Amino acid sequence: MAKLVPLFSGSQGNSYYIASSGKGVLIDVGRSAKQITNALLNNNIELSTIQAIFITHEHIDHVKGLRVFANRHSIPVFSTQGTLREMERLNYVDEKTSCHLIQSGGVDLDTMHVDSFPISHDCAEGCGYRITMNDSSFALATDLGYLSGEVEQAMLGCDAVVIESNHDLRMLQMGPYPYPLKRRIMSEKGHLSNAVCAEFLPKLVKSGTKRFVLAHLSRENNMPEIAYRESLNELTINSMNIGEDFTLDVAPVETMGKSIVF
């Protein structure tokens, strides 16, 4: 049995804790070290259980507290080569940070095996992660310009999935953002819309996925109830029943102390 704890989600910062057999990892550290520490303690998560930190990409909402948190607690950091290079250039890590590259064979830890897969986003070398534990599996993919074949393949068959449902297309089109920013969000280097996310979920259920968490919602161009309803409607149309075939949650901007067990 494994558990997922969404600590932070959205443009203000992102971080997730995944654990199995009493040990876990963090994916991203997008708030201050103090905020991350408090969120962990508020969820009764001991810092000593964190085996490693895995970074998806170098944007500030994913790495804000990384250097201080990792150095303070001597936790190794894993990322792709491009992401590590950018984090070094931007001073998000330093010579005290224990940095490691994700190799093609993934990373073996005490209680889990972690593989990365490439994503399309306007960053150096972004990735998502698939984690295999004793009797369960998990995948996270946010900051997606689109759902590539590699992303889909990595997520299929996982028991639990965190997937981006960033924006409602109409809200984005009619909203206050300048046109170049709207174009960037809607591009293949931008973010995944509610509609594209929702359309993929029935395929995941058919592959065995039971737990969904919608993540990285835009504060300006989305609402939790809109993202939730669009995904739920798509699943219902495909004759899939909530509570029986799947569960559906929206990751909170800040943790509300909820764990998702899978």
Write a brief caption for the model.
By secondary structure, the chain is an alpha/beta fold. It is built from nine helices and 14 strands.
CATH class: Alpha Beta
Indicate the multimeric state.
Answer: single chain
Question: Beta-strand level of the residues, as a percent range?
Answer: 15-25%
Give the fraction of residues assigned to helices: 25-40%
- How far apart the termini lie comes to 6 Å
Count of the separate structural domains: 1
CATH fold naming: Metallo-beta-lactamase, Chain A
Report the strand count.
14
Query: Which value, in Å, is the CA radius of gyration?
Result: 17 Å
Q: How does the helix and strand content classify structurally?
A: alpha/beta
Low-pLDDT segments, ≥5 res? none
Query: Biggest β-sheet: count, sense, barrel?
Result: 7 strands, mixed
Word description of this protein:
The protein is α/β, with parallel strands linked by helices. The chain has a single domain, classed as Ribonuclease Z/Hydroxyacylglutathione hydrolase-like (Metallo-beta-lactamase, Chain A). It has helices at residues 33-42, 60-63, 66-73, 81-89, 149-155, 169-174, 179-186, 194-207, 224-237; strands at residues 2-8, 15-20, 23-27, 50-54, 77-79, 99-101, 107-108, 113-118, 127-132, 137-141, 160-164, 211-215, 247-250, 260-261. The protein has a seven-stranded mixed sheet. It has a seven-stranded mixed sheet with strand order 7-8-9-10-11-12-13. Helix 1 (33-42) crosses helix 3 (66-73) and helix 8 packs across helix 9 (224-237). The longest helix is centred in the C-terminal third of the chain and has 14 residues, at 194-207.
